[in-house]
Amino acid sequence: MKKEISFIVNGEKATVDVPVNRTLLEMIRGDLLLTGTKEACDEGECGACTVLLNGKAVNSCLTLAVEADGGEILTVEGLAKNGEMHPLQQAFLDVGAVQCGFCTPGMLITAKALLDEFVDPTEDQIRTGIEGNICRCTGYDRIVKAIQLAAERTK
User: Which helix (H) or strand (E) holds 109?
Assistant: First the structure.
């Protein structure tokens, strides 16, 4: 069974006819062709598929696409505006927080949700906020520093 759903993705209106059992991740990558959101564990354990749905960070691999009906989705592609990187993206580059890059889209979206909640997060708040995102390349120190830098730049 399919359902037509309408939503806003990265500031643009969209309508998609999706099977009711299709995940948000499958819709984002397969129907919308936004491949920045990564597919990894399919169990909600790694955070690579994190997007904002109505301002809240969600694992898109565990969220049904129909749950986005009437809502707003932000993927990593929507962070940059008018050709300029989001302060988080710039900070990740500036401190070398990007290595292989696979976890980076989910990490950036999770960090955005964190900074939307805490204007000046402590290191503990940052580490707690990103604990659902697994990075296999780093010890997280540069990621934490990048989020701190972005918070300073956006105050």
Answer: helix 104-117
